[in-house]
Design goal:
Elements: H1 2-16, E1 20-23, E2 26-29, E3 32-36, H2 44-56, E4 60-62, E5 73-80, E6 82-83, E7 86-87, H3 89-97, E8 103-112, H4 117-128, E9 138-141, H5 149-159
Parallel strand pairs: 3-4, 3-5, 5-8, 8-9
Antiparallel strand pairs: 1-2, 6-7
The structure holds flavin mononucleotide.
Length: 161
Amino acid sequence: MMKDLLKNILNVIQSYCSQLVHCSKGLFIMEIAVRYCSKTKFGNTRRIAEAIADGIGIKAVSIADEKNLKEKADILFLGGAPYANIMAPELKEYAEGLDPKMVSKVVLFTTSNWSRRTVLALKKILNEKGLPVCEDYFYAHMLNIDGKIEAAKEFGIKMSR
Ligand SMILES: Cc1cc2nc3c(=O)[nH]c(=O)nc-3n(C[C@H](O)[C@H](O)[C@H](O)COP(=O)(O)O)c2cc1C
């Protein structure tokens, strides 16, 4: 009875705070980071990054403002877009420079006109470093960012559980 009550309370708290995780060792806060590279004036990838972060209740940070990940992350959401068929060199550099000891798992997202190759290219770089990358990733077409904001929020919540 008491156990069920506590379980229910925990579920309610968890639905408000997706970073709170319950495991056999008790409750702990998952460290989650959202980093992105966004180059056009429309800020498509930035807007998706902000929606993902919003769902989780944290802030998205541009890799232009933070060159290296400063704090450990249980989950790192990382996103970018293709420009003339390749990701921005600074995003490639960022991924190549990630310390596998700082990140437990990466979740990718991308925006583009048609291509999803940024996800494939990032996955290859990260896997070669020994960094696990989730199969599931988030994609938004550049002309449908508004229509994907809610889905990006939900993706953030789902993937951080
Ligand atoms: C110079 C330039 C080149 C682009 N090349 C591609 C491309 O090769 N493939 C593609 O699918 N989209 C391409 N796009 C579309 C962008 O990937 C898309 O607009 C993306 O959402 C931009 O993200 P951002 O606003 O966060 O910079 C290109 C856009 C620009 C401005």
